[in-house]
Design goal:
By secondary structure, this protein is of the alpha/beta class. Among the domains are: 93 residues; 164 residues, P-loop containing nucleotide triphosphate hydrolases (Rossmann fold), CATH 3.40.50.300. Strands 2-3-4-8-5 form a 5-stranded mixed β-barrel. It starts with a helix and ends with a helix.
């Protein structure tokens, strides 16, 4: 009899949570799908794939993605298909914004490279809140009508229908009740499998550190830093755990991107995401560092920020992730560093900024992620767990010290 943690988690998950879990390895049959967010692939697998006979369902997903998904290199082809066929079903990301100057809602469809796509009132009525607050993945039926003109410009594309990849039945109280059916070890194992890792390949200490990574998802305005070696799953976790997480991979971070774009009157990512992860923080460059960091420090302390005459309140947690040289055998940072914050950009080494960090995750204690470290059993469907995390943010006390005992 298999007594591994994975086996015990799987038995309980199938017995009590069968309608909201998925066998995690089912999503990894095709390397070409790595570009898709994990929550998209898990939604498709939960809908189409039978764990006992996965191949027919996986083949159906292959056909669906081949016909209805397109990368940026195929934008013109997709536009042509919509025009020539009159309508086309597209699988991809959709976001909506309100254009105050025109008093008009526009859909933004990255697969088309078009930020001025018309959208039906019915779709707005059904899913407007989610589409305005960061967007969603799903299938959309797009029509072509070159007769629509607004202020001398033709806007031919029109989204008539949209079906999001999301869990529709969700009850936070039920989730909390189900927690009582697991002991602490199996519940932690379930959460770790849910975010894509194998708990049997981790020590107890490493499992708790994995959970520390999740605190920014369940607590609003929680600021965390993780420094450690490469390939320990930092970026993987924040890119794949929730559609409400945003990864900034090095490069420039501007006030318009982070806070508010005065020119377009569009809120920045801190205003509509739950978590903002600065990947490779050592190579991140801030435009107008003094002003940007000043606003960022104020936000990290108060949850408020100002741009021009406007003031905003937001709940996004901030996570700084960085790679440092590590003695892997001793699981210690290289002794060449004078202090642990040495790799941060100079403007972030300010004590006033560091005082606003609530947690430091010692990433040098985390194992390198190898194929055998990925989840081999059942875990919550990612989109379900992401929505649970978002709802927990609404009921968790600020900077709670009891999160681990209640949620985990």
């Amino acid at each position: 009899m298999d007594t591994s943690l994975t086996a015990r988690v799987d038995a309980l998950a199938q017995q009590y949570l069968s309608d909201r879990v998925v066998l995690k390895p089912l999503t990894r049959w095709n390397e070409a799908y790595k570009e898709f967010p994990r929550y998209v692939m898990e939604y498709l697998c939960a809908r189409y794939v039978d764990p006992g006979n996965p191949i027919p369902g996986q083949q159906r997903i292959d056909r669906l993605l081949t016909e209805h998904y397109a990368g940026s290199e195929a934008r013109e082809l997709i536009k042509s298909r919509i025009k020539e066929r009159g309508e086309y079903v597209l699988l991809g990301q959709l976001q909506v914004r309100l254009d105050q100057a025109r008093d008009h809602y526009w859909a933004e469809v990255p697969a088309l490279g078009d930020n001025f796509v018309r959208i039906s009132q019915r779709v707005l009525a059904d899913y407007g809140e989610a589409l305005l607050a960061g967007g969603a993945w799903g299938t959309m039926t797009i029509e072509y009508d070159s007769r629509y003109e607004l202020k001398g410009r033709i806007y031919p594309f029109f989204i008539r229908e949209f079906r999001p990849f999301q869990i529709t039945r969700l009850d936070l109280d039920d989730y909390i009740e189900k927690r009582r059916l697991f002991d602490t070890d199996t519940w932690i194992g379930l959460l770790i499998q849910s975010i894509g890792f194998n708990p049997d390949r981790l020590s107890e200490r490493e499992r708790w550190l994995m959970l520390l990574r999740l605190v920014p998802f369940v607590e609003a305005n929680y600021n965390l830093i993780e420094l450690g070696p490469r390939e320990t799953g930092k970026t993987y976790t924040f890119r794949n755990t929730s559609s409400r997480s945003f990864v900034i991979s090095g490069g420039k971070a501007t006030p318009a991107t982070l806070f508010y774009n005065i020119a377009t009157r569009k809120i920045g990512i801190l205003g509509y995401k739950d978590v903002v992860f600065f990947d490779e923080i050592a190579s991140t460059r801030f435009t107008d560092p003094e002003a940007t960091i000043s606003v960022l420090k104020d936000y990290m302390q108060t949850g408020h920020f100002s741009r021009g005459r406007l003031e905003f309140t937001a709940q996004a947690s901030i996570v700084l992730g960085g790679n440092i040289d590590t003695d892997l055998k001793r699981q210690k940072p290289s002794p060449r560093y004078r202090h642990l914050f040495e790799i941060l950009p100079p403007e972030l080494q300010d004590p006033a900024f560091l005082d606003r960090i609530h947690g430091f995750l010692p990433g040098w204690e985390m194992p390198k992620v190898r194929p055998e470290n990925y989840a081999a059993g059942y875990g919550f469907i990612t989109d379900y767990l992401a929505e649970i995390f978002t709802r927990l943010r609404r009921v968790m006390p600020p900077k709670s010290t009891w999160a681990a005992t209640w949620v985990w």
